[in-house]
């Protein structure tokens, strides 16, 4: 992708939700050049930079939620060699003009091995999701795509 020198893609939390995730979920047209699509459960974090559309130490992806059990609500965060583990509590994302809750941000850390004895790595994911029933766009599906930012630190 040809971009001007010095170009950096660093959207805010609100921009990720409103300009990328909502149009993706609603299947509306938007510029997808900066955000790739990948199944995060089928790839290890160190494979992701090669799959990204752009980025040097931070990469952006859409990823469909994967259920741990078909009828359940728990999501699968495991890969072949490790797993993503949530840390801290979710951050609420508010739309500035109305201050309405539009989404949530979860921070996950990648561990090699199997829980609970995995070895912590420096790979961090910021997972964004729409907040069901509370976003300004009505009739969003409940099983939606997530946006993720993968960081190598």
From TrEMBL:
> Which Gene3D superfamilies does the record cross-reference, listed alphabetically?
NAC domain
Q: Does the keyword DNA-binding apply?
A: yes
The NAC domain sits at 3-153
Q: Name one Pfam family in it.
A: NAM
Looking up InterPro entries in the UniProt record yields: NAC-dom, NAC_dom_sf
Single GO term (MF): DNA binding
Q: Which UniProt keywords apply?
A: DNA-binding, Nucleus, Transcription, Transcription regulation
Instruction: Kindly list the GO CC terms recorded for this protein.
Output: nucleus
Listed GO biological process terms? regulation of DNA-templated transcription
Q: What is this protein called?
A: NAC domain-containing protein
What species is given as this protein's source?
Answer: Aegilops tauschii subsp. strangulata
């Amino acid at each position: 992708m040809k971009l001007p020198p010095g170009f950096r893609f660093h959207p805010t939390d609100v921009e990720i939700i409103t300009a990328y995730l909502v149009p993706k979920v609603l299947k509306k047209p938007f510029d997808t050049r900066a955000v790739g699509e990948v199944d995060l459960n089928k790839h290890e974090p160190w494979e992701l930079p090669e799959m990204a559309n752009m980025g040097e130490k931070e990469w952006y992806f859409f990823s469909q939620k994967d259920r741990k059990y078909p009828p359940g609500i728990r999501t699968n965060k495991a890969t072949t060699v490790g797993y993503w583990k949530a840390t801290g509590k979710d951050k609420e994302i508010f739309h500035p003009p109305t201050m309405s809750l539009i989404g949530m941000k979860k921070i996950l850390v990648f561990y090699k091995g199997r829980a609970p004895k995995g070895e912590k790595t420096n790979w961090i994911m910021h997972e964004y999701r729409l907040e069901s029933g509370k976003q300004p766009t009505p009739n969003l599906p409940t099983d939606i795509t997530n946006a993720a930012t993968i960081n190598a630190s």
